[in-house]
Structure formats: C-alpha cells, structure tokens
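hey can u check if this looks right to u? its 276 residues, i copy pasted from the old doc so theres a chance i mangled smth
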Amino acid sequence: MLGRLLGALASDAVDIPSPLWDRVVGELVFLRRFAAAPASGLREMCGQLLATKVMTGAAGLDLTSHIQVTVAAQACLPILKLGIEWYRGWSGIVVYPSEYVAQRRIQDEDGLVHEFEETAAGETWDAGPVVVSWSQDASEPVAGEAPFNVVIHEFAHKLDLLSGQADGLPPLDRRLHAGLDPHQWRRVLDDAYQRFCAAVDLVELELPGDVDPESSDAGPYYAHLPLDAYAAQDEAEFFAVSSEAFFVEPQRLRDALPDWYALLRRFYLIDPVTGY
C-alpha cells in the first residue's frame, strides 16, 4: 500500500514527495512551526513512521497517500526530539472516516460484566493498534475552541503506556531527561490536574439546569478553559489532552498552567512557544 501510494521504500523510510508534504503542512497551520525549523527532521521521521507501522483504513475509508501523511505528520510531533523508538512494541494504525461505534465490555466491583456501545473518535490499546478518525478529527482545530487533535492525543497515550500503565507519567530517560524524576513529575501533574478539575467543577456549577454538560449547548461555558473538559477524566487523559494543547495551541496552555507546560517542554524537548 505505502509503496504504491508514496513511492519506493528506502531501507528504513518512505520517500514523501515534496508536493504532497507541502500540501499537508499548508493545510495544518500548527505543523508549520515544526516543519520549518532548522534541522527539523519532521518529514524524515514521518517517512520512518510510515515505513515501520501498518496503516489501515476502516469502514470503507479510501486510505490515500494524503491521509497517511497527514496522520503520520501529526503522530510524529510527540516523538520529534525523542526518536522513533519511542513508538516501539506495536505496529498498527487504524483510520476511520469519522467517529465510530466501539463495543465496550467492563466488569464492575461485584464481578458483573456490562457490555455497551460507545461513540469514539479514537482509542489506544496497550501493545495493540492506535485507532483514530479522519474528517475534522485529524485536521486543523476550530478557532476559539479548546485544542482538539485526536491523532496527537492517542499517540501521547502510547508514550504514557511505555511505563507499563496509562497514568499520566511516561517513562523518563536518564540521558534525555536529566534532572527530571518521577516524584517531581507526579507533584507537578497532581497540582495542575487538581487545579484544572476545580475549574471544570466551577463551570458545571454555572450551567443552567436545562443544559446537558455533554451537549454542544455547553460549549460556550467551557470555552475559556485551556483544555478540553475531557482532560478532567483522570491523569492519563489529562496528559493526553495537555499534549494536544502543547503542540497545537501552546501559548494558551503555558499561560494557564506554566509549571505543567514547563514539565511537558522538558519531556518533549521542544518549546513550541519560543522555538526549539
């Protein structure tokens, strides 16, 4: 598939034609600061990702080279300075045309198993594939709304899972992250998470009784938050949603949660606000 759509494979990377690359970068404004930076390496890493992962279209999606490169370019942002090996241990990327219905099965505290359906924009499986949806979910964010990027979100979960569990604390490399330690990370994460949850609680207290917090009518009430309210689910989602904001709309995150932003900057080895 990749060889047919994008040209012959090099030993470890797909050759992305310049017109296609320029189109993708032109469509996603937030990518430009990373692609244009001296010695960026984003295009090369994108080629590496496409060569080492198997991308599959689902629900009838025609998986064009444009879709593949658009998804891969966004997926590479979290590892741009970390390295392609941070996406080790799995090989599949599944792309749906839009939101999809996922089958869920959970066991409660009493041992009862509950099966239900849930609409999803993406999901990540430990040692399994990353699932994302196309359409607006893999494109430029809407102005005036909290950053939303399902590709960055799900691939950030993959980094989190490298430590063995999704808890908002990805593994810290002694060489790359000298001076960072898990205790410091947890302290800053807990503080930022609790402050954000308190802000979400205040918004929900202000909601009129006839407004469903999950509906689009609630959107204006949450608009001033630096992150999508989904970040309040737990620490793992807070890390993933924060990663979206870090790469897509970093100034907003830095202004609201400067210590948390600084920690993400040290982990990702990038400062999207001021440059590399």
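Strands lie at 54-57, 92-96, 100-107, 113-120, 122-124, 130-133.
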